[in-house]
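Protocol step 4 of 6: record predicted structures for both targets in the notebook before any analysis. Target 1:
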Amino acid sequence: MKTVILDAATLGNDIDLSPITKAHETTVYQTTEPCDVAERIKDCETVITNKIKLSESNLKSAVNLKLICVTATGYDNIDIEYCRKNSIAVYNIIGYSTNSVAQVTVGMVLNLVNRLADYTEYVKSGEYTKSGKANCLSPVYCELAGKTWGIAGAGNIGKQVAKVAEAFGCRVIAFKRTPDDELETVSLQTLCEESDIITVHLPHSNTTDRIIGSEMIEKMKDGVVIVNTARGKVIDEEAVLKALKSGKIGGFGSDVYPSEPFDEDSVYNKLKDMKNVCLTPHMAWGAFEARERCVKAVAENMQAFLCNKPSKNRII
């Protein structure tokens, strides 16, 4: 199939695209500006994208388009209704980045709980050498064993994080719409009231928009640690900033933002230099192995479409 990859740079320049390019006539663009999308896809049969928005305004020029492959699990950048009306198949990828996101999530929690930024800076600044003391134990940090770790959104990633939390000796509770025999499920309010650590793995929707906001934060324990590696819009960043300043939130980590990258006026620019904050550039999904699986899965999605085979990744 005549194929266009619109934003290959989002997969990294170290990833082999040959599972796709060897099987299909493929034009690869590292990045694509919104104004160029319509022109670049007008003759193709397949569009592969990660973050580029595809809507009626640019899709209507693609008269030969049969298939859209999203190199991610989320597909809120695709106009699904337009695709359904115009018989354009849409595939995403499920489960390819579970280990990668879970690993970074836990890494953020450990960084914040152990106050590693403070201790690392103490050594880098030369204060450790000047102190004349063999150790430094300020700021105080605590063990995870015996703490309660709340999993907000217990899908594949949330469950993987839960396994690690249990290995640390934590009691794990989870907010999940449907009961789950594998986990102790509770309401979001109970999770916020009882958790020492909260990791967020919720998809963004009308019902989860800013779901972690002032009301829920007020119910949390003082000094709670929150890490979000899901979607930027499930957390109210203004409420987080206020709670960080008051000390209500003891540590905050995020890999995702309402607008990516966040701009100069973003709330995240006001909190990024706080010692108890850990911000990363939407990289949690992108371990090398995860990106390899991603490309392979896209190739498999294209083959499933051509052969009219059922696929768990087919959206429409």
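Target 2:
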Amino acid sequence: MKMLKRALYVTMVTPLVISAVAFGFLPERIPAHYGFDGLVTRYGSRLEIFIGPLLYIAFGLFMLAMARFAGKQEHAGNHNNERVVLIAGIVILIVFNVLNLSSLYTAYRQVDELYAESDLVRLMLALGGVSLVAIGAVMPKLNRNSLVGLRTKWSLSGDEAWRKSQRFGGICLGITGILLFFLNAFLFSGVFSIVLSVIMITVSILVSVIYTYWVAKD
């Protein structure tokens, strides 16, 4: 457990450290926001590169608090829920680390047309797919709780319904994640990637929720 917490701290702080090192190499004025068409809509100060890393630290602290709370709900000697929350936090923060590096690259290169050189949206969605696969893989290990996992009034109705729901939900997340990765990495881009990804994730969630109802009534 200590190793997981250390890994979370490292992935949480690394973007801030890298941004601090890169700060001196960036121009005073950098692209600060891109529209859906991939074109710059606003320029800002290079100080804005620290906004993301500070938010990532806040997210990491939130996941640590969630893990601690999840651990308190478990029986003595059982740390499955706490471990799953920490792993989920690490996976998501790794995605944030890659996104931060890409943002620094576009700032350094003064990229005016995002899709022409570095499609951050496409990269983020593809990496998001990888994170869904990782989270889906650990979901079946969750014990019944009121904080994390595929929680509906049906999945919480009993231990067997919970176990089957987490297993099915994990499989759905894994399949969705694989599709998100390959479709965004090799086929689609731009606004279409966003729309497609939102639809796929929504369908996955709806199917999983319906399954919890079905398995509870079985």
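Step 5 preliminary note on target 2. Helices lie at 2-23, 51-72, 80-109, 114-117, 120-138, 159-187, 190-217. The longest strand covers residues 29-34.
Proceed to step 6 after PI sign-off.
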